[in-house]
Amino acid sequence: VSQRKKMTSSRRHHLKSLMLQIAAGLIEQEKKDIEAAKQAYMAENCPAPDLSGDQAALMEFCKKLHQAIDKVDEARYDAESKVQKANKEIEDLKLKVVELAGVKKPALKKVRMSADAMLQALLGGKHKVTMDLRANLKQVKKEVKEEPTEAVGDWRKNIEDKADRKKMFETS
C-alpha cells in the first residue's frame, strides 16, 4: 500500500491559480484565432463594394443587396421553423417515453404521528387545533339485557321436543 503525501492548501491554491491563468490565456488565444478566421472569410467571400459611379448605379446596387438580404432572411426563417418543429417533436417524444415508462411511485414509509402533529405540520405552528376525538364522543351506557333463561331441565325432554318439530317439517 503506497502512501502519498497530502498536498498543502497553499500548494493546491498556487497550482489552481496557475491552471486558471493558463486556461485564461488559451481562451484569449482562441478568441483571437476566431476573429482572424472571420476576417479571412469576409475578405475572401465578401469583397469591398465598389461605390464609385452615379446615383442610378448605386440605387441598383442597393436593390440587389436588399434582394440578397431578403433571400437570406427567408432561408433563416425556414431553418428556424424546422428547428422549432424538431424541438417540439423531441419534447413530444420525451413525454411519450415518460408515459410509457410510467411514474415509479416510491415505497411509502410508515410514519407514526398523532392527528394533532399532522394538523400542526399541515397548518403551521400558528393554528392550535386539537383533534382529541375521544373527548367529542358521547358517553354510552351499556344496558344489560337479561334474557329469561329457561329452567334447566332434563336434556332428554329438549331433544324429544326438537324431534317433534323435525317430524312436523317432514310431513308437510
How large, in whole angstroms, is the Cα Rg? Answer: 47 Å
Total beta-strand segments: 0
User: Element order, helices and strands?
Assistant: HHHHH
Question: How confident is the prediction overall: mean pLDDT?
Answer: 83
Keywords:
172 residues, 5 helices, 0% strand, elongated
What does this structure look like?
InterPro entries: Troponin (IPR001978), Troponin_I (IPR050875), Troponin_sf (IPR038077). Keywords: Actin-binding, Coiled coil, Muscle protein. Pfam families: Troponin. With 172 residues, the chain is mainly α. Helix content is 66%, strand content 0%. Among the domains are: 32 residues; 51 residues. The protein starts with 8 loop residues before the first helix and ends with a helix. The mean pLDDT is 83.
Please render the helix and strand layout as text.
Elements: H1 9-45, H2 55-101, H3 115-123, H4 133-136, H5 155-171
Q: In a nutshell, what does this entry contain?
A:
Keywords: Actin-binding, Coiled coil, Muscle protein. With 172 residues, the protein is mainly α. The protein has helices at residues 9-45, 55-101, 115-123, 133-136, 155-171.
